[in-house]
Amino acid sequence: MRGESTSMKQNWGDAPWPAVIAHADMDAFYAAVEQLDNPALRGKALIVGGSSRRGVVTSASYEARAYGVRAAMPTAQAHKLCPHGIFVPGRMERYAEIAREIRSAFESFTPVVEPLSLDEAFLDLTGTQRLFGSPLEAGRAIKREVHRRTGLVVSVGIAPVKMAAKILSDLSKPDGLLVLGPGLVREFLEPLPVERLWGVGRVTLARLNQAGIRSIGDLARSDPAMLAGRFGSLGAHLFELANGRDPRAVVADWQRKSYGEENTFEHDLKLDADQLRTTLIAHGEALARRLRADQVRARTITLKLKLARPLGGGRYPLITRSQSLRGATDDGAEITRVALGLLARVGRDEKIRLAGVQVHNLERSEPAQFGLFGPERIAAAKHARLNIALDQVTERFGHRAITRGLARAEKAAPSTRIK
User: Fold this and answer.
1) Are 233 and 281 in the same domain?
2) Do the beta carbons of residue 213 and residue 194 sit within 8 Å?
3) Facing residues of 270 across strands?
């Protein structure tokens, strides 16, 4: 691991911390896992994602990033920027396996862990000084523990507020540690570009720039009434963040709101194409495995289709169809049945560029409540036994070891959990 960076302009003992919040973010996570499992890839320009002309980059090693390759970039563009790069498909099951070890490492420091995705989380370290020492010492310990358990490196930012901790971890990459003491947040934020703040996307950034606001300091010195008039409640929120005030706590009982699987096809497909049906079956099975692994069920299924009718600027029409069930499910056959039924509600003349399935309205799994007699109870018990067997085979041999029918889809990029 490389040398750490710290910001300690005041004595930890003289300035009490109102809260000690860490943001831990794995470095180039998917690419790092691939290099961990295949040492021959270390030091190479590695790009994870679909290799088709419509694929999307999901992760890139720092060697590839030196050529301008970034996540969410079309694979075709990545090929142009880095023609000698090594392209590999993603393996979400493996990344999820490593992510569980990372989460366990975080929870060995505090039970108050708020995951944002597979590879990053907030940790509330308030009150742990007697166990782990100063915030700086705790940050060092977190980095050591993650590396010990996984062989991977994590960048950590620690500050009295969430927003500053997130920015610090971003600035410390790769493999760094930045700590900012109380009373220094406003000074730290002053020169940073305003787009560093949460909630400042491309549209908001353009509007802020039009108002002459380019740095966080500019925003902090702006008239709150003007910001409220131009941006509504978002203006007031950004003003508070720019002045180093972020009251949001780390939420340990954070729950996922939805799961999704999708892929972009190499060639546009007709609605009655076997490949489209096969893809939806594969997505239904993948979603069901994830639901069962997390011990949740979903009550609403949504079909997502991107039509092959260019709107200009790289945009395409997106349509969705949803259906809610009487009872929540974690069964792949049920999810697939609904998704295929929703497909039948789409105009038959359309061609499809992308297809995805999402599940919403989640609830914790409870023992199934079936009737004492009748075919419903028998069928439900049969499906439950089948799913247990499928999960056991998948856990031992991988998700490609067994599929339902011809349910296997080549993806333009590995599906990710919605943040």
Assistant:
1) no
2) yes
3) 351
For 191, the enclosing helix (H) or strand (E) is none
**Residue 66 in domain:** yes
Fill in the DSSP letter of residue 186: H
Per-residue pLDDT of the chain (419 residues; tens, 9 = 90+): 444 544 433 334 456 788 999 999 999 999 999 999 999 999 999 999 866 677 889 999 999 999 999 988 888 899 999 999 999 988 888 998 999 999 999 999 999 999 988 899 999 999 999 999 999 999 999 999 999 999 999 999 999 999 999 999 999 999 999 999 988 999 999 999 999 998 898 889 999 999 999 999 999 999 999 998 999 989 999 999 999 999 899 988 666 788 898 888 888 998 888 889 999 999 998 899 888 888 899 999 999 999 998 888 778 899 999 999 998 999 999 999 999 999 988 877 888 999 999 999 998 876 554 444 555 554 555 556 665 666 565 555 555 545 555 444 445 444 444 33
Contact 205, 195 (CB under 8 A): yes
What is the spatial distance between Cα 296 and Cα 189, in angstroms, rounded to a whole number?
40
Q: Which residue has the tokens 């270390």?
A: 42
Give the domain extent around 194: 190-242
Tell me, yes or no, whether 146 and 221 share the same domain: no
| CATH number of the domain that residue 37 is part of | 3.30.70.270
Asked if residue 364 and residue 319 are part of one domain, the reply reads yes
Q: Which amino acid is at 278?
A: T
- Residue burial 152-170, b: 16+ Cβ < 10 Å; e: rest: bbbbbbbbbbbbbbbbbbe
DSSP string, 69-124: --TT-BHHHHHHH-TTPEEE---HHHHHHHHHHHHHHHHTT-S-EEEEETTEEEEE
Which residue do the tokens 């972009």 mark?
264
Residues involved in catalysis = 120
Same domain? 145 vs 40: yes
- The DSSP letter of residue 39 is G
Q: Rounded distance, CA 15 to CA 181, Å?
A: 8
Q: How many CB atoms neighbour CB 381 within 10 A?
A: 12
Position of tokens 């004492």? 372
Among residues 149, 182, 215, which one ends one of the domains? 182
Q: What angle, rounded to 10 degrees, do the helices at 29-37 and 92-107 form?
A: 100
CATH number of the domain that residue 231 is part of? 1.10.150.20
3-state SS class at 216: helix
pTM: 0.73
1 and 98, same domain (yes or no) = yes
